[in-house]
Write a structure and sequence with these properties.
The chain is globular. It is α/β, with parallel strands linked by helices. The chain folds into two domains: about 120 residues, 3-Layer(aba) Sandwich (Rossmann fold), CATH 3.40.50.1000; about 80 residues. It has a five-stranded parallel sheet, sandwiched between helices. The chain has nine helices and seven strands. Strand 4, helix 7 and strand 5 form a beta-alpha-beta unit. Helix 4 packs across helix 5.
Length: about 240
């Protein structure tokens, strides 16, 4: 695996010239999980499934507003620090957030169990077709995700696991993106140099940070609804297909 050049404030200290007239081909593509290939089922549906009694739309709106407000609660914000470096930290971060809404505190553990349940995740409409076209052309695929549990069961539930030959979960490495360790590990497993690898995600700092490890990166816009088209056809173009 080639090393990234050491950079000063203005750029690389040692100049390295690529072979003239040659474009480095993409040999591998890494994907983020949530917000990139999958989206979790709507919160309102999950809350209704976890509560023992039905709630009307007005009550649900108050609970959803409470979750929104909870994102700026100091205790919730603190719980998110290094959230994805371990399974324990991940559970703590999410259950702390759910519990910031009094009505949801009794079902915080149930909501977290839903988060890990394969059936609670919905692939985007263009996920499978994109993965199929990439693998049909011989590209190697991997998953690099900041997460607190093993994602293979979720991919298998939706029959998408067979497209991937590398699985890099942050909690298994005690670090989070954009730590180069995660991207380097995936590249080694796929047998591709960073310069030959494209990282696809939805977080500019974390997924876009793959560029700091020498990869190409493509960041999708946020806010896509579960099951919608994600715009993943752009990945095919970036991979030269």
């Amino acid at each position: 695996m080639s090393r990234m050049p050491v950079c000063g404030p203005e750029g690389p200290i040692r100049a390295t010239a690529a072979p003239e007239g040659r474009r480095v081909a993409v040999r591998a593509v890494l994907f983020d999980f949530s917000g990139t290939l999958f989206q979790v089922a709507p919160y309102a549906d999950r809350i209704r499934a976890a509560l023992s009694q039905p709630v009307d739309d007005a009550a649900m709106d108050l609970m959803l507003s409470g979750l929104e407000a909870g994102l700026s609660d100091p205790g919730v914000v603190e719980a998110q620090r290094a959230r994805d470096v371990s399974s324990k930290a991940h559970r703590h971060a999410f259950t702390t957030w759910y519990s910031s809404v009094p009505e949801l505190a009794p079902i915080a553990d149930a909501l977290y169990a839903q988060l890990k349940a394969p059936e609670c995740w919905v692939p985007y409409a263009d996920a499978e077709s994109t993965l199929r076209q990439l693998t049909c052309t011989g590209l190697a695929l991997g998953v690099v995700s900041d997460v607190g549990w093993d994602l293979r069961a979720t991919f298998a539930h939706h029959r998408l696991d067979h497209y991937f030959t590398s699985w890099v979960h942050s909690y298994e490495h005690n670090t989070e993106k954009p730590d180069p360790l995660l991207f380097d590990h995936a590249c080694r497993e796929l047998g591709a140099e960073p310069a030959q690898t494209l990282m696809v995600g939805d977080n500019p700092a974390k997924d876009g940070g793959a560029a700091g490890a020498g990869l190409r990166s493509f960041v999708l816009p946020g806010g896509a609804t579960p099951g919608s088209y994600r715009g993943l056809e752009a990945v095919l173009r970036l991979a030269g297909l």
